[in-house]
Design a protein that fits this description.
Blueprint (H helix, E strand, L loop, with lengths): L1 H20 L2 H7 L4 H17 L23 H6 L17 E6 L7 E6 H17 L4 E6 L2 E4 L11 E3 L6 E7 L4 E3 L2 H11 L11 H6 L10 E3 L5 E3 L7
Antiparallel strand pairs: 1-2, 3-4, 4-6, 5-6, 6-7, 8-9
Length: about 240
């Protein structure tokens, strides 16, 4: 028993030391959606489109896939065609936290954006808990068909959250009545509304405020609208059916 404990302690030390040995500059590069990588990838995608008669270097995804992760870039197509000589350091494929995707793929000007996979990991962890418990325990109703997660009844110590890709804020995870787990970006959207006072149409999904302001897309989210008081709230899809 003592030998096993010593072995576990040794392994833990190795993992800790490995993390400490990671150069800070390199770690920051893996976690930053920098403009240079985005520019290089945009140029490569544009060149690929021109050479292939308008095709995009993307992987195939199901039609029901979240629109923000629906068109991940297929780096193999770009490297084989020598449109890029190496993958972005901060890409998931190279150990970074970003999935490179094509945004507005059906338009005349598709854009290279990224998705922060820390949100995907947070959703995955709740999905695992869901598998153990059989289903998500619904908590307080937030709006329409959206609920808080009753984390206590699921045997969790605190309300599940995900790190925001836009600030140091932690974003709550919520669940639809159907069991779909989502990230709640209302904190970040409210910040934009309060500070920049954008003109928003009644009933308009305001996630575009994040789509246009940042290179990182608000993946695993639900539509939001502004209510009459200027507060961000989930679009009540039950009311709009």
């Amino acid at each position: 028993m003592k030998k096993i404990q010593k072995l576990l302690m040794f392994c833990a030390c190795i993992i800790l030391l490995t993390g400490c040995m990671y150069p800070k500059a390199e770690k920051k590069e893996l976690e930053t959606a920098d403009e240079l990588n985005l520019t290089i990838m945009q140029k490569a995608v544009d060149q690929y489109r021109e050479a292939t008669g308008g095709l995009l270097p993307i992987k195939t995804r199901d039609e029901q896939t979240d629109k923000y992760i629906k068109y991940p870039i297929d780096f193999d197509l770009l490297t084989q065609g020598e449109y890029i000589d190496k993958l972005p350091t901060n890409s998931f494929e190279k150990g970074g936290i970003f999935q490179y995707v094509i945004w507005k793929a059906e338009s005349d000007q598709p854009e290279v954006k990224v998705v922060d996979l820390q949100q995907a990991e947070a959703v995955r962890e709740i999905s695992i808990a869901k598998g153990i418990n059989g289903f998500i325990k619904l908590g307080e109703n937030i709006n329409g068909n959206v609920y808080k997660i009753n984390y206590k009844k699921m045997g969790m110590k605190e309300q599940p959250s995900a790190p925001s890709p836009y600030s140091s804020t932690l974003l709550p995870l919520v669940v639809k009545g159907t069991g779909e787990i989502c990230v709640d970006y209302s904190i970040e959207l409210q910040k934009i509304v309060d500070e920049e006072h954008p003109k928003v149409k009644k009933g308009q999904d305001i996630r575009y405020l994040l789509e246009e302001k940042y290179p990182i897309l608000p993946a695993y989210s639900l539509p939001y609208v502004l209510n009459e008081d200027g507060d961000v709230e989930f679009l009540d899809d039950l009311k709009n059916k």
